[in-house]
Amino acid sequence: MAMTDQAKRNLAVAERYIELYNSDPEKFVRECYHPDYNLNCMGVGSFEGIDKFIEIEQTVWDAAPNRRMHVVKMHATDTAV
Predict the structure, then answer these.
(1) How far is residue 62 from each of residues 17, 31, 57, measured CA to CA in Å?
(2) Is the dihedral of CA 64, 57, 46, 17 positive or negative?
(3) Quick count: other Cβ atoms within 10 Å of Cβ 53?
(4) 60-68 long-range contacts, CB within 8 A, separation 24+
(5) Tens digit of pLDDT for each residue in 42-62?
(6) DSSP secondary structure, the chain, as one string
(7) Please, are residues 81 and 11 in contact by the beta-carbon 8 Å criterion?
(8) Which class for 1: exposed (0-12), middle (13-18), buried (19 or more C-beta within 10 A)?
(9) What are φ and ψ of residue 7, in 5° steps?
(10) Model-level pTM?
């Protein structure tokens, strides 16, 4: 079955997410998350806002510059990947 145009767009977004995660922490956060992003992580804490998220991602990147997201297979639909 051929992918719909929407599924192809969704797959492209997922591929861009992986590309940015692996290459540029600031662009990753700015392009993939809403500016008013809020994170609540059980047992770790919480934070608000894109600037704090960028700071955290940059700290992680500095500590582990070789971190990589590797996805073996993706299945795209009109509503999810």
Answers:
(1) 19, 20, 9
(2) negative
(3) 22
(4) 60/25, 61/25, 67/22, 68/22
(5) 888 898 999 999 999 999 999
(6) -PPPHHHHHHHHHHHHHHHHHHH-HHHHHHHHS-TT-EEEETTTEEEESHHHHHHHHHHHHHH-TT-----S-----SS--
(7) yes
(8) exposed
(9) -65, -40
(10) 0.86
